[in-house]
Amino acid sequence: LPSPLTRLQTLHGMDHLDSLTTSITSSCELIETVQSPRNFVQRLVAHPGNRTRLAWDLFGGALIIYDMLAIPTWVFAVPESVLSKAMETISVVFWTLNIFATLTVGYTYKGVTIMEPKFIAMRYLKTWFVVDMFVLLPEYIEIAYKGTAVSTDSEPTSAGSIRLLRIFRLFKAMRLLRLFKLRWLLQLIEDLLDSEFASIVANIIKMIVLLLIVNHFIACGWWLISVSYQPEVDTWIKVHDFDDATWQYAYTTSFHWSLTQFTPASMHIQPQNFGERLYAVGVVVFALVGFSYVVGSITGSLTQLRAMKEEAAKQFWQLRRYLRKNQVPLLLSLRINRYLEHAWQQQARASDHSRVTILAMLSEQLQSELQSAVTVPHLEIHPLFHYISKVCPVTMQRLAASAMSKMPVAANDSIFLPGEKATHVYFMSEGRLAYIQRPVGQEESKKEHVDAGEHWIAEPVLWVRSWMHLGLMVALRECDILRVDPVPFAASIARSPAMLKMAREYAFKFVEWLNAKERALTQSDIAQGRRCLEDVPATLAGFVEQGLPEEARGTYPRFIGRGNAMSRG
């Protein structure tokens, strides 16, 4: 076995190791008890990153956008429709339920996630409670008033009733205060974009939509200014004969006028009194700044897109020039070009850890957790790594930070050759490999495909002093491979007495099975997590099965490893 495992066992002895394991298990149970919910209310509190909560917030964002578009158009006396009534009902029900939903989700404060119901309630009372009550109470009163009118078969036709309904509508306009919630929803959507190109395009679309929304509000204000005057005052509506126009034509005309204030275009609609003229002047002054900002942002984004394409074109032009100048063979040039095109696209889609410089500000623990979250899903096809990640996540985080590395591979690259000394265990994260081997006593070679999420390669290098590869491994297409270095692996395992004890038991049973005589004709570097149980010795399968959590026993694919152990003397 690698020296760190053997050395630590020798220093402590198995009896002392058992006591340490019991102590660590008790400590973990104590920590779990402290962190677990203590009552029914705490169990209801969800993490702010919960997917259900995110879906709920996105639906709320859609309702906010609907209010942002619909409420300003009330100035055009838009008649009620089945859709508008349905949306009003959905909005009242949603925002009522949202009060309770807000009290059952945690929040982040100065980098710390707060899950305590008392603090969540205090934060809500200090922020959105007043707004929710100011908006919802008038809506409840309006629903009750309309319900009373329907039950008595009377219509609100009196001047007082109509005035009261207008007051209700004015209070309902306070729903626009929820626009402040859209900021973090836009941030959430930006976080979902993992491509620089997509992020730039999204920024361009956002600026265009912002310009249209601003013009939407200005257009509604332009109409409101005019209808606010007495009938005897000349207004642009009266002068241009829009008194009897439909609300759709009136809105599009106002919107057209608004757009002309932001551009050099013109139209026949002009202000007819002091109030309209003052409003028009204010819009023009605002447009000087607002339109310049929007155009500048769009221009900057387009410049970024152009720079990205120019950088790619420049790099590949230099590559072609270099290959021609050095008379690189055509076949090799084609392979290099093909791989670099793939690597360039991969770099644009997913950034490497080393390129994201801001990650250097993370603490060592957060760095380990991040690295573990990225790599562990590809390793959990192996029951041992699955066991470690479930039972001792800290050890798995240490392994991810110190023992694992990425290895990009081009199509037709050789990973290793027969007879070479193995240096790493390999896990596929993307792509496909071919393993070619000539079994002992056979003339024909055997070919096997290695796919992501199904196989791992050269596991014995973790448990024996020397392992020689038995076949040829070639990439069929561009691949990303995760490598596990046995030396840091052993050192990380040795830091946890409980994991060290488990790893030693696994290692001895693995090597015992590996040296079994019946394995002589079935030796290989490849192992697969979904092979039949009859290929696995009962002792090894039973050990792995016992290591899994109780609820997972009998459900996880059984382990199968194959190979040839060198003499350990």
Q: Which sheet architecture does the biggest sheet show?
A: 5 strands, antiparallel
What is the overall number of helices?
19
Strand content: 5-15%
Rounded to the nearest angstrom, the radius of gyration is 34 Å
Name the structural class: alpha+beta
What does this structure look like?
This protein is α+β, with helices and mostly antiparallel strands. Helices cover 58% and strands 9% of the residues. The chain contains 19 helices and eleven strands. The chain has helices spanning 3-35, 40-44, 51-70, 82-102, 117-126, 129-151, 159-172, 182-192, 196-227, 236-239, 247-260, 274-325, 330-349, 364-379, 383-391, 393-402, 486-494, 497-514, 538-547; strands spanning 107-109, 112-114, 404-409, 414-416, 425-430, 432-437, 446-451, 455-457, 472-475, 479-484, 526-528. A five-stranded antiparallel β-sheet has the order 3-10-5-8-11. It has a four-stranded antiparallel β-sheet with strand order 4-9-6-7, with no helix packed on it. Strands 1-2 form a two-stranded antiparallel ribbon. Helix 9 (196-227) packs antiparallel against helix 12, helix 14 crosses helix 16 and helix 18 (497-514) runs antiparallel to helix 19.
Key words describing this protein structure:
single chain; 569 residues; alpha+beta; 5-stranded antiparallel β-sheet; 4-stranded antiparallel β-sheet; 11 strands; 9% strand; elongated; disordered C terminus
Topology diagram in text:
Blueprint (H helix, E strand, L loop, with lengths): L2 H33 L4 H5 L6 H20 L11 H21 L4 E3 L2 E3 L2 H10 L2 H23 L7 H14 L9 H11 L3 H32 L8 H4 L7 H14 L13 H52 L4 H20 L14 H16 L3 H9 L1 H10 L1 E6 L4 E3 L8 E6 L1 E6 L8 E6 L3 E3 L14 E4 L3 E6 L1 H9 L2 H18 L11 E3 L9 H10 L22
Antiparallel strand pairs: 1-2, 3-10, 4-9, 5-8, 5-10, 6-7, 6-9, 8-11
Helix pairs in contact: 1-17, 1-18, 4-6, 6-7, 9-11, 9-12, 14-16, 15-16, 16-17, 18-19
